[in-house]
Queue: 4 jobs
Job 1
Amino acid sequence: MKKGRKIASLIIIGLVLVVEFLALVIFTVGIMAEEKMFREMLVCVVYSGLLTAMSVIGLVLVACDKKWVLLSLVGTKIVMFFAFLGATGGADAKSTKACFILAGFCALLFSVTALIIICVKRANKKRIYGYNTAVDYNYDDDNCVWDEAERHLKSATDEYCKTNNIAFEALTDRDIIQIDRYSVVHMAYLFAWLVKNHFVKDNSRNELVKYDINEYDLNIIANETRDPIYIILHWNGTLFSDILKRDHKGRMARQFISEYIGYKEPRFSNTYVSFYLDDYIATTPSGKMYHDDFSWETYHELEQKINKNYNRYLAQNDAVASTGIALKVFWPLFGVVLDVYAAEGVSDDYIHKCVKHLLKFSDNLITDMCQGMVETLHCQGYNLDSLISETKKGKLAVKGNFIPDSIKIYNPPIGEDRPAYVILDRGSFDSVHGIGIPVLGDKIMGIDYRIYTPNPWFRYYFT
């Protein structure tokens, strides 16, 4: 629960509690003063006591960050109101019944009014914390979220308030709409690049239907008639990989963007790095992340940087694909013979350095490989209980399931001599897709399907 909403809920329930407690005191005094109306007063005491207890419980639940507490209290108290109203139906004391009805009605009216006020108040600010859109996209196993506005809304809001010297409470609807745009501008540029390079799915087989866009949307972006922000906002402020075609070019673009837009380095850490955002910020007129709206002039400047990095990626990827097997090597760890592929220009000395590193695979790399396999494959729905158990014991749990058949070696960047290669397999875990494990020095850089596994040096080629 947000801090502001939590405080408001505590205040509202606290005020209602005061009213209900006062009613409890009044009826308790009345039960001692009115002996002839003992039954009616007792019902009122029980009723107001329950209301008071419920409000106290509500305060505790809100303090524990439970959701929907206000709504639950109001609904329950309405039911109780009519239940206890029926319990006093046979009373002859009209004044007592009137007092009871008035107290209950006031408490309920206060609760409902307070709930409406807080909902209306939050409605003007709700898009600061999340979007309401027409699309509720369900992600599948072959889809990943590249970026989403939720990660940027707070920073965008803070920067907007600081730049315009305005307090958060003073933001208008117009300000909020602008903040929404600032939080997705960087995604809009990347989406425009994907559209203009024909990586996005076409509508020839109704592939765009589930994204609620059509050929017209893509054409007006490709022709630079309109900026693509409205599409990103319509997608809940999210840019996801499943919008790309499933052909070879689409897969290459997916792999490129996945690395370019951000990754965690080193593996299993929380340090987030994004070369794309670095390029984006360096290109904006202000040099800030959330300050400039979309412009096609800025796009063309940013496009040159994206193209440069993408072409480098293609060159490195094709470098290995265009060469044959450099040598074969037996890997005792798994008891298999591997085909060693090397990109054009890779020296024999560097090839042998990588092979030597592979043959002396360290215990830390084995542990990371097992952990990474469990993380990756478990998310794909595999039953890996035994594998997880063995991994926790520090054993080579993937042996017998992970069956490598080759490694790929790429040209290292200038000044780098660490061994780096990709281990590829078609094991029993997933014989259709296969698995790839990029290794750089003493780190496992990530584990993915065979076709999506990037060059370990890939991120070092970015400008």
Job 2
Amino acid sequence: MPQTIPRVRAALAVLALLALLAGGCLGTLRQHPDAASLARAPEDLLDVPNRVDRPSWLLRRKPGWVGAHEVEYGGTASDHARTVIQAVVFVDTATAAEAYARLTPEYLRRLRGERMDALPKTAAPSVPIPADEIAITEYPLKMAPEDPDAGKEMIVQLITLRAGRTVVVIDSIGYSYEDLAPAVAELVRAGRSLKP
């Protein structure tokens, strides 16, 4: 276990840098209160601080898009884990379901190509998570060749779900699925509670 913590911290540093680079093109996108509230819903259930909190472009071109928000929890060298939650609100469940169908492994690889070493593969966590639609996958993190942990496999959990008229994408490293399950369940509850 002691050797795992430096590897996780190195992977967290790579992911944090990539998130900063990806966030540079947000321009003047306005914050949507429901999307922001949804992305922050599990904050008390994660034992790492909210480090990044901003509007997101995720699924912006899909019909019925109302707003999206991204929150990054953890991700610094002093944190043991990192979880990025992107929450998207649509006008109704039909448009949310249509947008959710777009989140194929190939689409997600295009979105996160700079850090995915392969297409996400289905994972089978021991804790069931109820959602209207859910896909639980994982992928190996692509490490820079100069990284001290290059060549060691770091697995990122990638969970996509739809709850009511919301779609959520969660990238996480450093947590087990069992540890992450309460936060995911809270996202489902918060998503279903949004009224049209």
Job 3
Amino acid sequence: MRTMMLAALLVAGCAQKIVVNDGGDRDGGPGNTPPSDSGTGAGGEDAGSVDSGGSFSCFVDPFDPCDDPDEVNGTNNEWSSASAIHSSSAGCQTGDDFEPLDATASSLICNVEPADFYRLTIVPCDTRTMIATLRFTIHDACPSDRYNVAWFSGGGRLDCNDPQDGLTCTVEDGDIVMRRRVNPGNSILSWQFGVESDFEDVRFEYSLNIKLE
């Protein structure tokens, strides 16, 4: 009887080892190697290289705080609160008086925000057709299914998964490059560009460049 009681006390006194997985509820969290990308994401291939530990550098602890220096005075997480990517309108201010545009926004997508949005007003020319080129560069190694770039115009959404309205998409040196024509006209265009990544364990630095030629 004493032997049985002693055995019960020994079992009760043993500490239980609890393993906590703090990598979030998505595949590819911190310390894990994400599944290989099938090419269906925005870029069609994984951006950057895998670090020496076998993980993509864009994956972070979902509970790690992140401060975006570009959002100190307000967020740009939605198209309605987009930040200006250029200080004024672009295109032909009068007639065919065209001035080329080359503007870049460089920032950070935090793991606690769904997107960064930028706005630009375009004034079409009278007879000249302009070419707009949007280039997205991600500066951290990240699977291409963890981010996306969208182009909003007139309330409609364009991206590389559904390239309508004359939009073309290519991948050049790992960058997502979107191009479209701006035909002559007399209606001012309001564009918004969205860098999207609605994952609680993904953070990366990027550059978004818009050219008008």
Job 4
Amino acid sequence: MGWLDPVRGLFDRAIAKLREFLPSVAELRGGRHKRGLIFLSVLVLALLVTFLVVVLVNRSSRRVSAPGDEISKTFQPSPIPAEELFLPGEPDFLPGVVLERERREGWTAEDAAPFWTDPMNAGPEGYVDSIRGVVDEMMERIP
């Protein structure tokens, strides 16, 4: 492990400097903040260890990864299929329109028969009552 020796040397020097620094700070504070200094030293140590781990993982991942790696293939961007972007066409349920139909000059009774219902076939009483109701309501509104 020849490449790890400089990292160990750096780590040992950082620990030695930290050991020199902590007593001088404790003397300045009169020993009142010993827990805070311990916490600070642990935090600095944890940050150093985290930094070293990140550096080592990056260095080892560069050696191990190959161009045809499974993970890189999984996370490569791929085009979105057109079926997911556009809605399918609506079904054509309306009848076609004939724009070139000849215009009729007039309607005969047989032409209008499918579209007309004679109101007097059911009896005039219902219509007369509804007409009277509408007229009475209009008359009541007049001042």
